[in-house]
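Continuing the series of single-chain predictions for the mutant panel. This is the parent chain; the variants come on the following pages.
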Amino acid sequence: MKSKVLLSFDTEEFDLPREHGGEISLEEGVKVSSEGLEKILKLLKKHGVKATFFITGNFAKINPDLVLKIKKDGHEIACHGVDHFEPKKSDIAESKKIIEKVAGVKVYGYRQPRMFKISYTELSKCGYEYDSSVNPAFIPGRYNHFDVPRKPFLKEGILEIPTSVATFMRVPLFWLALHLFPKKMYLKFAKMSAKKIGYFATYFHPWEFSDELISYKEVPSYIKRNSGDKLVERLGFVISNFKKQGYEFETYADFARALDKK
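Parent structure:
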């Protein structure tokens, strides 16, 4: 049996300019992300694959129609806090209430904004089954997770599903890697990781796929590289190559349930 591919999108309001000293309104941030999200949904439908969308409460309240479109297309809806720029402990419960009300589905998974530290006690108390807030790598200025397992593990009754890293030096294979690495190199590293741990899990943000990204002067040039339609093409290349070799795309919830049955 081929390894699984867990593709996910952190569907949040675009707030990257604020991280770099700029300003952007919540409404404008949601608009930028919404443009990218439309492209993502079209791409996934074209290739016939399902993904998991970790959605903030802010995004869901401002653009409920797109949340419902994600649901209609058969993808998994999960939580990503409320306000992406200023996460609070209370968001774990509040985001679940917002997302379940807007989408009309039960939510099983959570991902903390920017993959900051998460309370597993709170996740368990709020009825989540899995979390995906760990990138087992070193990201300067963010975190050092070299000591965290690469494979799924249980913590206080919550299944943690780490993002995949390269088999050497734990080089991150998340969103930014597909901007910067040659796409064939990225694919090779991804397949090596999948072979080693049994699955490949990665994440992107809808705003990366927006044509508007390049117009924000505060956003570093390395993030703008291969963004917009170029990133659509790159992700399509990765998806199609995984499919040609028989890899199966699966939502995080389905993956978690399959592990629970073993």
